[in-house]
Amino acid sequence: MSTTTKKIPASVVWFGIPADDMQRAKSFYANLFGWKINPGPGPDFYFIETGGAEDSPDGGLKRRNQSSEPIVQYVSVNSVDEYSKKIEKLGGKICLAKTPVPQMGYFAVCQDTEGNSFGIWEQNESAKLS
């Protein structure tokens, strides 16, 4: 019996919003869209529940690391390693290499050929910190 890997649709599954003032940003998005924004792991991260359809992405509100840090959308892929190689082969760039989110999966932040940032996400419940 052969095993095959199920192809994951390349859909947006998560977004990350950077903020200078976490409380101000939390208030803005909660009041603007009615999103539920709940504490995450640590003081510099909140989970965002958009309340949309089951397939609509939720996200996170995080402390901004760089002054020009953009909102990043994450696209589901079968393998962060494979897609990282493909991105570089096509002329893109890996800005943040494969990073584990324990018991959830792996992500990487990339840049396309036009300088736009985006992320890739591999769901993997075996993910752990090295």
CATH superfamily of the largest domain: 2,3-Dihydroxybiphenyl 1,2-Dioxygenase, domain 1
The gyration radius over C-alpha positions equals: 16 Å
Taking pLDDT < 50 over at least 5 consecutive residues as the criterion, the unreliable ranges are none
CATH fold-type name of the largest domain: 2,3-Dihydroxybiphenyl 1,2-Dioxygenase, domain 1
DSSP strand tally:
8
The tally of domains stands at: 2
Strand content: 35-45%
Q: Classify the secondary structure makeup into a structural class.
A: alpha+beta
Assembly type = single chain
> What is the CATH class designation of the largest domain?
Alpha Beta
* Portion in helices: 10-25%
Overall pLDDT level: 90
Describe this structure in words.
The chain has 130 residues and is α+β, with helices and mostly antiparallel strands. It has 2 domains: 16-64, 2,3-Dihydroxybiphenyl 1,2-Dioxygenase, domain 1 (Roll); 77-130, Roll (2,3-Dihydroxybiphenyl 1,2-Dioxygenase, domain 1), CATH 3.10.180. The protein is built from 2 helices and 8 strands. It has helices at 22-33, 80-89, and strands at residues 12-19, 36-40, 42-49, 58-63, 72-76, 93-101, 105-111, 117-123. An 8-stranded mixed sheet has the order 2-3-4-1-5-8-7-6. Strand 6 and strand 7 (105-111) form a beta hairpin. The longest helix is centred in the first third of the chain and has 12 residues, at 22-33. It is globular, with a radius of gyration of 16 Å. It starts with 11 loop residues before the first strand and ends in a 7-residue tail after the last strand.
